[in-house]
């Protein structure tokens, strides 16, 4: 049985070292953002010996950053997000402080 879930998608991710990344796109089925305070990617899988063979674009399954204007009851309500490196951590670049 498969579920169809409406999620924001990860438009770009520049973390080429992540096993889910191919061609600046994230191919995990869904990612989780945030640790409650910082909008970091909680799914990145660095240092893996190979990359995924999946081709679908990742969705944002959950976000724990309640200080973001797009956060609605621990879900992201943006149409899409971008992920990149900022201040030595992998972050949601679409984050906007309330
Ligand atoms: S835009 Fe805001 S709510 Fe959406 S994933 Fe990024 S930090 Fe979370």
Précis, in short:
This protein has 98 residues and is an all-beta fold. It contains no helices and 9 strands. The structure holds iron/sulfur cluster.
Protein traits:
single chain, 98 residues, mainly beta, three-stranded mixed beta sheet, two-stranded antiparallel ribbon, 0% helix, globular, binds iron/sulfur cluster
Q: Count the E strands.
A: 9
Bound molecules: iron/sulfur cluster
Question: What class would the helix/strand composition place it in?
Answer: mainly beta
Oligomer type: single chain
What is the count of DSSP helices, taking H or I runs of 4+ residues? Answer: 0
Cα end-to-end separation: 39 Å
Radius of gyration over all CA atoms, rounded: 13 Å
Q: How would you sum up the major sheet? A: 3 strands, mixed
Give the SSE order as H and E letters: EEEEEEEEE
Shape, per Cα inertia axes: globular
Q: What number of structural domains do the residues give?
A: 1
Mean pLDDT: 94
Ranges where pLDDT stays below 50 over 5 or more residues in a row are none
The amount of helix comes to: under 10%
Q: What fraction strand?
A: 25-35%
Strand order of the largest sheet: 1-8-9
What are the SSEs and their pairings?
Blueprint (H helix, E strand, L loop, with lengths): L8 E5 L7 E2 L2 E2 L3 E4 L25 E5 L7 E2 L2 E2 L3 E7 L2 E4 L6
The structure holds iron/sulfur cluster.
């Amino acid at each position: 049985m498969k579920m169809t879930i409406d999620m924001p998608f990860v438009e770009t991710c520049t973390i080429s070292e992540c096993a889910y990344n191919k061609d600046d796109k994230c191919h995990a089925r869904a990612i989780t953002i945030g640790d409650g305070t910082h909008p970091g990617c909680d799914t990145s899988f660095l240092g893996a010996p190979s990359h995924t063979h999946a081709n679908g674009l990742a969705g944002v399954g959950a976000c724990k950053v309640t200080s973001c204007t797009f956060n609605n009851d621990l879900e992201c309500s943006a149409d899409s997000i971008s992920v990149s490196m900022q201040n030595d951590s992998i972050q949601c670049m679409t984050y906007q402080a309330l």
